[in-house]
Design a protein that fits this description.
- This protein is of the alpha+beta class.
- The protein has one domain.
- The protein is 28% helix and 31% strand.
- It is built from three helices and six strands.
- The strands form two sheets. It has a four-stranded mixed sheet. A two-stranded antiparallel sheet has the order 3-4.
- The relative contact order is 0.28.
């Protein structure tokens, strides 16, 4: 099941903010697969704090879809990690476990 933004923020908030993460995420954008959903650009190396900051910046923000239109992200928006114009991969509870063991 794909994680929603509110759950992602809650999980990130419960982690050590200084923890380094490999294959995390950065800047938010509208997801190519469904513009009403949220995507984050992949980041090879980042921290929990940086990911949390990016997730919080998306909450309530308006993004332009790949083919136009404006889409507001809320706590129920599904989250993905994908490069611009690609569908990428969903963020799931398995993703959380991967980030935890690094």
């Amino acid at each position: 099941m794909v994680t929603e933004l509110g759950d992602l923020i809650k999980w990130l908030s419960s982690q050590d903010p200084d923890k380094k993460v490999i294959n995390g995420f950065g800047e938010p954008m509208s997801w190519r697969g469904d513009y009403y959903q949220l995507s984050f650009a992949p980041e090879k190396e980042t921290t929990i704090k940086d990911m949390l900051d990016n997730a919080l910046s998306a909450l309530g923000n308006t993004f332009v879809g790949y083919k136009g239109g404006e889409f507001v992200m809320d706590k129920n928006s599904e989250v993905y990690i994908a490069n611009y114009s690609e569908t990428g991969e969903p963020v799931t509870t398995y993703t959380f476990k991967y980030w935890e063991i690094q």
